[in-house]
Amino acid sequence: MAFQCQRDCYVKEFVTSVVSCSPAELKHEVSGKKETLKGFNVKLQDTILFPEGGGQPDDHGLIGDVPVLRVTRQGPAAVHFVSSPLEVGQEVQVKVDWERRFDHMQQHSGQHLITALADTMFGYKTTSWDLGRQRSTIELDIPCVKPAQLQALEEAINERIRAHVPVTVQLLSIDDPAVEKVRSRGLPEDHAGPIRIIDIEGVDANMCCGTHVSNLSHLQVIKLLGTEKGKKNKTNLIFLAGNRVLKYAEKSYSTERSLVSLLKTGPDEHVEAVDKLQKSVKLLQKTNLSLLRDMAVLIAQNFKNNPQRSNFFSLHKKEGDNEFMNIIANEINTEETLVFLTVGEEKGPGLFLLAGPSGPVAETGPQVLDMLQGKGAGKNGRFQGKANSLARRGEVEAFLQRHCKHHTSEEE
């Protein structure tokens, strides 16, 4: 069965009736977290909302005033997941999210055109494709594509777009001899009804269930952004079609203006300016590390030279790393002194090091770890790791001082 969205991809509103409505659940991600929604699966007499298939995501839209959250295909039927029940037999108006639909039409028809010309011009076969939210990818069965080939392919693609080449839909029976002549990666196991062919006049005939433009001119333009290494000697060709090219240009220009303001140079000098900045930052980081090491040695020596020093030393510094803390611990005689060091934000995450006599370190280490909500391990008089929060650092310090006094009194 062909849905109304497949018979006429440009229909934005459609009146139909509810055939069935049953309780259902939908698993989806919200801000990276998987959630299960309770709702209803609705089947309609016909639909303009495309169910996911052929590498194309499903449409979004409304049935009446109820949002459709997912559309899937079950055999010849389209199943619409909604949050509120609909009455069986009820006449309803279906509206499609046209911006999303037309974007999918442009990307999908663009993929057909790119795939066909890559094969015709260079013999590069498409093994799969992905219609992403921001950019789309075609997997080519070739280890690499030369820059000159990419340029020639892009020019040929946009020539066809400017030529206003018609795109038509044919419905053929499965035993029609013409089916053997079209490009296809096979039919789904539960396919039912006629075979749908997308025909780009003089360019390509391909078996496909998706929604497409009726003329290549509706693609506006296609930009091949480049290639990336794919899996098993394959190449991923990255492209944008239609309105995505315009949005990409708008975003790129906005970024360019921001960089002009930040770098105080014209667009042509941005790469050189950033390269200089990176080199300066690396040099400053190297100098900073050297100063931190020298500071660590001086801190330790200052403690050792203090005749009033105790058997406990504690220090927190916002800037620093594990090497900074270990230098201090190495310089101080930790066989006699318990050393507690932290680096990072005072009440935020950071690093810690507890060093000293192996007995006290082994006894107090796990409690220090717990108080700092951290992860770490210890051996041979050292216990160190990452702290999720240094907010209780003062409590840890007081706890260690009490332990030192208790340990000293026991020895006396």
UniProtKB/TrEMBL annotation:
GO terms for biological process: alanyl-tRNA aminoacylation. It is found in: Cytoplasm. GO terms for molecular function: alanine-tRNA ligase activity; ATP binding; metal ion binding; nucleic acid binding; Ser-tRNA(Ala) deacylase activity. Pfam families: tRNA_SAD. Residues 1-251 form the Alanyl-transfer RNA synthetases family profile domain. It comes from the Eukaryota. Its cofactor is Zn(2+). GO terms for cellular component: cytoplasm. Keywords: Cytoplasm, Metal-binding, Protein biosynthesis, Zinc. InterPro entries: Ala-tRNA-synth_IIc_core, Alanyl-tRNA_Editing_Enzymes, Thr/Ala-tRNA-synth_IIc_edit, Transl_B-barrel_sf, tRNA_SAD. Its main location: cytoplasm. SMART domains: tRNA_SAD (SM00863). Functions in trans to edit the amino acid moiety from incorrectly charged tRNA(Ala). PANTHER family: ALANYL-TRNA EDITING PROTEIN, ALANYL-TRNA EDITING PROTEIN AARSD1. Belongs to the class-II aminoacyl-tRNA synthetase family. Alax-L subfamily. This is Alanyl-tRNA synthetase domain containing 1.
